[in-house]
Design goal:
This protein is α+β, with helices and mostly antiparallel strands and 147 residues long. The chain contains two helices and seven strands. It has a four-stranded antiparallel beta sheet with strand order 1-2-7-6, with no helix packed on it. Strands 3-4-5 form a three-stranded antiparallel beta sheet, covered by helices on one side. The longest helix is centred in the N-terminal third of the chain and has 25 residues.
Length: 147
């Protein structure tokens, strides 16, 4: 019969925790610039993504954002939307809406024609239209009836 040694369990737990921290620090060191940019963002706006036969549409809620501060880019199949909602100069009022810079990123499916991406901004909603390539759109197959 062996005797329980709490010190052995404690040392084993410490070794496992050290390995977890080492793995986490290695992953953090290898992360891209996007993650550091995301960490600098003050908030993320809410978004909905819709799909129909012709396109994907991303609707991002950004009320009160000046259109000139919005930046939309597509790089390596990633759609990124950045912008800023400045804080009012007189901050003695109650503020519930997030302020500062924001960043939101989405994966772009291979079916999207990236050269045809367009955006509209109306009533505080940014609509980004990602049209599908014609060859990637579903094709209807006609069924012949044989007698």
């Amino acid at each position: 019969m062996s005797q329980w040694n709490p010190l052995h369990d404690l040392v084993s737990l410490q070794d496992r925790m050290n390995r977890l921290f080492e793995d986490a620090s290695q992953r953090r060191a290898s992360e891209t610039d996007y993650s550091s940019e995301l960490q600098r963002a003050d908030w993320q706006p809410l978004a909905d993504v819709f799909e129909d036969e012709a396109e994907y549409t991303v609707a991002i809620d950004v009320p009160g954002i000046d259109r000139s501060t919005l930046e939309i880019s597509v790089d390596e199949n990633k759609l990124t939307v950045k912008g800023t909602r400045p804080a009012p100069e007189n901050t003695q009022h109650r503020l519930e809406c997030p302020r500062g810079s924001f960043l939101r990123s989405f994966s772009v499916p291979a079916a999207v024609d990236q050269k045809e991406i367009k955006a509209d901004y109306k009533d505080g909603v940014l609509l980004v239209h990602l049209p599908k390539r014609p060859e990637r759109q579903p094709q209807k197959v006609k069924i012949n009836i044989s007698s």
